[in-house]
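Reminder: ligand-aware prediction takes two inputs, not one.
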Amino acid sequence: MATGHERGSFGGALGFILAAAGSAVGLGNLWKFPYLCYRTGGGTGPEGTGAGAFVLSYIAAVLLLGIPVMLAEIILGRRSRQGPVGAFKTLAQGKRWHWVGALGVTTGFVLLSYYCVVAGWTGEYLVQAASGTFGSITPEGANTLFSTFLANPGKQVGWLVVVMGVTMLIVAGGVSAGIERMSKIMMPALLLMMLGLLVLALTLPGGGQALAYLFRPDFTNFGMSTVLDAMGQAFFSLSLGMGAIITYGSYVEKRELVITSAFSIAIIDTLVALMASVVIFSILFSFNTTMEGSGISNIFTAIPILFAKLPGGSFTVVVFYVLVVLAAITSTISLLEVVVSHFIDRLGWHRRKAVLLLGGAITLLGIPSALSFNVLADYTLFGKTFFDLADYLCANWALPLGGLFTALFAGWFLARHHKTEELGSGPFFRYWQFTVRFVSPLLIVGIMVWILLAA
Ligand code: TRP
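Here is what comes back for the chain with tryptophan:
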């Protein structure tokens, strides 16, 4: 059984909320959410119609799928005090549910392999910022810088190795105290910075246009795939569906505040994604620029343009990318920790061995993703590069499937006392139970079946 080695724990509810928010807030909020808005909204050029339908679907997904599944994961972690595989094994009492945990660990493995590639971009941009490249950059210059960087296979693979190396070093050192302490500094700093940028962005000439682009309901490009994207993004951004929150939940000692925690994490995560998008789109509209590819470059090209115009901007842009790098690293850590702790708990590996072997394997798997923007750009399957395919399979399918089974398990199979001891037995419990039994599963299955039939 698990927990032969000593298990960490968070200092209190605030520590848990900020650590979980640290896992949740990452490239998903700062890069992928604005990217999906740009893509589903049809860009910011004349043919762009707006991302309102996506933003609305996303908020619905957070409320109907994200928060209920997050509560389920916290409960599973707290009741079992183990990672995903151990949690299902213990709580399912002999029934064969632990493969849901195994699916989670596998998903974490693949997800981390391409996530690290984008995390590497943030590293490059931190270096560029620190060496003053953005001092007077023009929108065209910013686009060229990014596409030249993407086209360089050596740099892509090099940064992948650096990011995985740093992640492995931190995880090898054991993580709970480090994660909690780092999150307590980083999350408030990130929130303050985003708030400052938001105020600034709204005073730009394109601020109003950005708000309209993001929040005006516009169903021109709306389709079932918009809903699938929104659902996948909700799981991805909240770190759900693969046991990361089960693992973090297993480090929570006090029973109080489970509900408050889940709502706080979801609110922080959603606000950061929305603020980042308002900032980026305000810049795009104000400086009349469009983005590399389908918007994949957003925080890398838009942000430097704004900072280049600000007094003291060449310093602040460094602070900004430091925060982005930290946000990325707190997420890569949580992903690697789930994979590594599984091999420690279930197979008795030493932490160092687990980190070295698994981290190494993840780095290797990351290489085709790093090359998807250059040498392997033309090797596509179903029109998707290796990177796109890995992301599509993990985010849009594997995480929602993991979430589906987590909801079904918590709703129908978990002994009632585990749930009522965490949530009480009042109206909130009954609402949650109804949601994880019926609403979330039917939505997830419905969306998947719809997409499969349409394909
Ligand atoms: N939520 C993180 C982000 O938005 C990524 C992430 C970290 C994640 N841990 C996870 C996604 C676990 C799914 C599962 O960038």
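The CA atoms of residues 112 and 352 lie 18 Å apart. The domain at 4-454 is CATH 1.20.1740.10 (Amino acid/polyamine transporter I). We will return to this case in the review session.
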